Amino acid sequence: MSGIDDLPPLRQVIADHDLRAKKALGQNFLLDLNLTAKIARQAGDLTGLDVLEIGPGPGGLTRGLLAEGARRVLAIEKDARCLPALAEIAAAYPGRLEVIEGDALKVDPLAHLTPPIAICANLPYNVGTELLVRWLTPADWPPFWSSLTLMFQREVAERIVAQPGSKAYGRLALLVQWRAEARIVLSLPPEAFTPPPKVSSAVVRLTALPEPRFEADAQVLERVVAMAFNQRRKMLRAALRGLHPEIEEILVSVGIAPTERAERLSLEQFCALARAVKAA
Ligand code: SAM
């Protein structure tokens, strides 16, 4: 018995279906069902929620999400070898698990799920940041998801929650924190995975704010932040020179010293700057 359901232990699932991890697919599996249940619990109360999972692999986290009471789980997996193992889970939870074989970057979850939707995944590291950026930049806000509970390399997790003045602070922190609440809820050493990756990992939980924390045009804000951090060691008046011919005056008009550097500006200051640039 596995502990959270009557399905076989994951080591047996891996052996039965010959699921040797492939590096190219970012496969570092979680085989401890207590740990996958713990990650699923970080997603909050799942009762009555549809859940999107990217890269279920042999299904450890999928089992946790279903055992935690998710109404329905849509799991998108690129590796066809995992499908028989996932079919066993679907059979144990009739009508609650839909598995799509394919690339998560190409599937529209709304064709399969109904909001409110929680997204929970031990993501393949090679597509994790791309998916996060996509989920944070929809055409309209609030987005189709209410929360994201995602595994990242520890270094990426730290960039997501970083505060001004730290080395990790930059585009990702500002993009995330403008429209979401983000915190690291779990840290995992490499040995938690099979095979172990080279670096430590962390689970980040993000909740979508009903509206952005401060007013700003999304595109202008993104441009200002990108330019400011492209040359993060330069003073803002130099880094942002290409943005507007009167950038020094604009900076002063919102109370920012033109000699200041990007990594010391708060989100609120970046939003004020984006508004002033747009109005200029
Ligand atoms: N969730 C499983 C676990 O915790 O044991 C597996 C995690 S493993 C880090 C990442 C999974 O994502 C692998 O099963 C891999 O095949 C799958 N994957 C990689 N790229 C993908 C993509 N573009 N779309 C969907 N799944 C993908």
UniProtKB/TrEMBL annotation:
Keywords, A to Z, come to: Cytoplasm, Methyltransferase, RNA-binding, rRNA processing, S-adenosyl-L-methionine, Transferase
Report the residue ranges that make up the Ribosomal RNA adenine methylase transferase N-terminal domain in this protein: 35-210
Gene3D superfamilies from the UniProt entry: Ribosomal RNA adenine dimethylase-like, domain 2, Vaccinia Virus protein VP39
Q: Which residues bind S-adenosyl-L-methionine?
A: N28, L30, G55, E77, D103, N122
Q: What is its EC number?
A: 2.1.1.182
What residue intervals traverse the membrane? Answer: none
Provide the top EC class.
Answer: transferase
The protein depicted here goes by the name: Ribosomal RNA small subunit methyltransferase A
Cellular compartment(s)? Cytoplasm
Per the UniProt entry, what species is this protein from, by scientific name?
Thalassococcus profundi
Classification lineage: Bacteria, Pseudomonadati, Pseudomonadota, Alphaproteobacteria, Rhodobacterales
Please provide, in alphabetical order, the Gene Ontology terms of the cellular component aspect for this entry: cytosol
Chief location of this protein within or outside the cell: cytoplasm
What is this protein's function? Specifically dimethylates two adjacent adenosines (A1518 and A1519) in the loop of a conserved hairpin near the 3'-end of 16S rRNA in the 30S particle. May play a critical role in biogenesis of 30S subunits.
| Lineage: superkingdom | Bacteria
One Gene Ontology MF term: 16S rRNA (adenine(1518)-N(6)/adenine(1519)-N(6))-dimethyltransferase activity
Give the reaction(s) catalysed: adenosine(1518)/adenosine(1519) in 16S rRNA + 4 S-adenosyl-L-methionine = N(6)-dimethyladenosine(1518)/N(6)-dimethyladenosine(1519) in 16S rRNA + 4 S-adenosyl-L-homocysteine + 4 H(+)
Classification via Pfam families: RrnaAD
Q: Which protein family is named in the record?
A: Belongs to the class I-like SAM-binding methyltransferase superfamily. rRNA adenine N(6)-methyltransferase family. RsmA subfamily.
